[in-house]
Design a protein that fits this description.
By secondary structure, the chain is α+β, with helices and mostly antiparallel strands. It is about 30% helix and about 20% strand. Strands 2, 3, 4, 5, 6, 7, 8, 9, 10, 11, 12 and 20 form a twelve-stranded mixed β-sheet that branches. Strands 13-16-17-18-19 form a five-stranded antiparallel β-sheet. A three-stranded mixed β-sheet has the order 1-22-21. The radius of gyration is 33 Å and the shape is elongated.
């Protein structure tokens, strides 16, 4: 093999190689010092019938991602042809492969052994990033003073346009080149007929990439996040980090049971936004929200001002993408709710609008004492840092560029681009020497006592189009609902025994009296807790809001999943949507709007005691059982009742410190590294050893004569360089370009 000697000298003259070649020299030196260059050929084994191997593809990918990348891989191979031998000599190879050879290598990448393990090794141990991953500056701090490793997982979509293909009797059948890589799917804001998805995993504090998977169409989230969770487990074990202090963040696309179970099964914590806000429609949850203590969320001050509260726990099933039913066992997760004022009454982004606020629900399994509700929401929105990482990657790397129409080849080129980025970050951190100590944490101020003052949403200007204003569809509301009477005993409700006539004044014409005169401990409520439809189903009070012309209304809505299978649906609802729910608006008073919070908390507390009828009015009577003279065996004890899906939160005070994100500013050290590279140049002198020339028509042995499969060592000899390579790196100041690792080598 070739002997490579690197020397740092003073800048004396203009050198022949381009300036961007300095960075690959530093990366190769880093790989040699950590022994990665010896392990790389054993890891990147692509089974081919001769020709270039995985080591040559890794060399080309690293050099390409360090270059300006103005004309793609084909243009890079053409521009690098004059100094191909000298660049390849850095890696101990004879020459760079041509663009056609790179395409054939990528097409054969589906024969790469253990692609998931190769990607994990290349982006962790192969990136020499153990010190950077474990540095306190790259960790997040909880309120108890413990450091956490935070990882971001997010699939990204790239769409491709399909142009029309000419057809004719004299033409062969048309064939799409991207038929294996792409498939139709939801492309979001991207324009295109077909698409492929790349699921990225990165370390939040250090901007290091750790995994990437490519799939046609849209990503199967549960499978992709399972691969990412296994990667997190392997990387944390390799870096000497504790899995119990590792956290994966992902958005609402993974806010369901299968994704959460895949992450928790690897011993890693998760934090995600729930994919569905159905939990907010639970009467018990609504009653809790009405009296919850809301804490302000720390943010950048550029968006809406959020408040957060604990929302208890909910059971999610590992086999169901929707929230579980009482019959489905599953994992109990902690819920955190956040809200902000909806200025126009419409939903903006993810969440659900209720009572003038837009709510979001987050699911996690981290302890509330370490990460209180407001800190948890702040931690989740730290995901925006990955968007900045995507922006830098699109500018500096080939991410998002189609390098191969084979999914395995596209993934391998993506991993090589991420590998180059990791080596750049490690060298940038090493070039500044000691990164410094993390500042001491800040003491957490005492929590305010009592319920925080609520925000007055009554003064907000109502929307132009009401969500549920009285319309022609509700003109016959009196004929399909009957009022609920509240007895003197607080909380006992019963339907009225007197039917409402169709010609009687409707409930919308008679506003209910105000509740301002009611006083505890046993208030008498004049407003209806719920309305009962013609099928005997209770429609609980959903909210109080202003609708058309700013007039106040009380909104009553049917529970979820009731109206779809109802036998009397045709008499009540005109919509043909199965998920549609009956909603009725009853006129209220101005005083009701002012007392909204108290009314909702009291009435929803009453509404939680309502039992939805299990039998329809027209249900058949149960047939009596026949007498049996056989001796009756003792009945087994009844099974325990299912655990309630929702449980209220348990009060846990936060720790003594303020939670903090990572403190390392990766773009700053990358800018310092870039400045050092711009002041340096490189010169490579290759002294290759003359090797005996083989005659192809003379057999070199039995394996050559019989055409056996070549060993991995024989395959590597195809492009191996034997001799001496002298590399001179010239800097403007004469200082070492990578001082930390030079000292380690000495």
């Amino acid at each position: 093999m070739a002997t490579i000697r690197t020397r740092v000298t003073q800048l004396k003259k203009s050198l022949a190689l381009p300036q961007w070649t300095v960075e690959p020299v530093a990366m190769v030196e880093l790989l040699k010092l950590h022994g990665v260059s010896k392990s790389l050929p054993e890891r990147l084994r692509i089974q081919r019938e001769g020709g270039y191997g995985g080591e040559d593809l890794a060399m080309t990918g690293l050099l390409y991602n360090c270059s300006p990348k103005d004309a793609g891989i084909k243009g890079f191979c053409k521009e690098a042809r004059p100094y191909s031998v000298r660049l390849a000599a850095l890696f101990g190879r004879k020459r760079l492969p041509a663009s056609a050879s790179v395409s054939r290598l990528l097409a054969a990448s589906d024969r790469l052994q253990d692609p998931d393990d190769v990607a994990t090794w290349l982006l962790s141990e192969g990136s020499c990033c153990r010190d950077l991953l474990a540095d306190p500056l790259t960790q997040s701090l909880d309120t108890n003073g413990f450091y956490w490793s935070v990882f971001d997982f997010d699939p990204s979509v790239d769409a491709l346009r399909q142009r029309a293909l000419p057809e004719g009797d004299d033409l062969p059948p048309p064939m799409r080149r991207a038929r294996k890589l792409c498939a139709p799917g939801y492309s979001g804001r991207h324009r295109g007929e077909v698409q492929y998805s790349t699921a990225f995993l990165s370390h939040a504090g250090s901007s290091l990439w750790l995994q990437a998977t490519v799939s046609a169409g849209n990503t199967h989230f549960a499978e992709a996040v399972g691969v990412a969770a296994k990667t997190v487990a392997k990387v944390t074990d390799w870096a000497g980090l504790d899995r119990q202090f590792s956290l994966m963040r992902f958005d609402g696309a993974g806010g369901h049971g299968p994704a959460m179970a895949a992450v928790a099964g690897q011993g890693v914590h998760f934090l995600a936004r729930l994919a569905s806000c159905v939990v907010l429609e639970d009467p018990q949850v609504q009653a809790w929200l009405a009296s919850a203590i809301w804490r302000e969320v720390t943010d950048s001050g550029s968006g809406p001002r959020r408040h957060a509260t604990e929302l208890g726990t909910w059971v999610v099933s590992a086999d169901a993408y929707a929230l579980s039913t009482p019959e489905q066992p599953g994992q109990r997760v902690r819920l955190v709710a956040s809200r902000f004022v909806s200025s126009d009454g419409k939903k903006h982004g993810a969440g659900k609008v209720m009572d003038g606020f837009q709510y979001e629900v987050f699911a996690t399994d981290i302890d509330a004492a370490a990460w209180p509700a407001a800190d948890t929401v702040t931690l989740y929105y730290g995901r925006c840092g990955q968007e900045n990482l995507f922006g830098r990657a699109s500018k500096d790397l080939s991410l998002g560029q189609v390098s191969s129409y084979e999914p395995a080849g596209q993934r391998l080129m993506t991993v090589l681009a991420m590998w180059t980025s990791n080596l750049r970050s490690v060298l940038a951190a090493a070039s500044v020497g000691d990164l410094g100590a993390r500042p001491s944490p800040t003491t957490r101020p005492p929590e305010p006592t009592g319920v925080l003052p609520s925000i007055d949403v009554a003064s907000i200007e109502p929307p132009n189009e009401p969500a549920c204003a009285p319309s022609a569809s509700n003109e016959d509301a009196a004929s399909i609902v009957e009022p609920i009477e509240v007895t003197e005993d607080f909380g006992q409700v019963s339907p009225s025994v007197t039917a409402v006539a169709t010609d009687a004044p409707s409930a919308a014409d008679t506003p209910p009296p105000s509740l301002s005169a009611q006083t505890p401990p046993q208030p008498t409520l004049a407003m209806a807790v719920a309305l009962v439809c013609i099928a005997g189903i209770a429609l609980p009070l959903h909210g109080l809001r202003r609708l058309v012309g700013g007039k106040p209304y009380a909104i009553y809505r049917a529970p979820a999943g009731i109206c779809g299978p109802c036998p009397k649906r045709a008499q009540c609802i005109r919509s043909n949507q199965l998920k549609y729910r009956k909603e009725i608006a009853i006129a209220a008073t101005e005083q009701d709007i002012l007392d909204r919070d108290r009314i909702l908390s009291e009435i929803r507390a009453l509404g939680s005691t309502l039992a939805t009828p299990t039998a329809r009015p027209d249900a058949a009577q149960k047939r009596p059982s026949k007498p049996n003279d056989a001796p009756q065996l003792p009945k087994p004890p009844p099974p325990p009742p299912p655990e309630p899906r929702w449980q209220p939160p348990k009060t846990k005070p936060g720790g003594p410190w303020l939670s903090e994100p990572s403190r390392l500013l990766v773009p700053v050290i990358l800018a310092e590294w870039k400045n050092k590279l711009q002041q340096s140049q490189v010169e490579i002198d290759v002294c290759a050893k003359a090797m005996p020339r083989t005659i192809p028509w003379i057999s070199q042995g039995a394996e050559h004569r019989q055409g056996r499969r070549q060993t991995w060592a024989t395959r590597r000899e195809f492009n191996a360089l034997h001799g001496t390579v002298n590399v001179n790196v010239a800097t403007a100041s004469g200082d070492e370009l990578w001082p930390k690792y030079q000292r380690k080598a000495a």
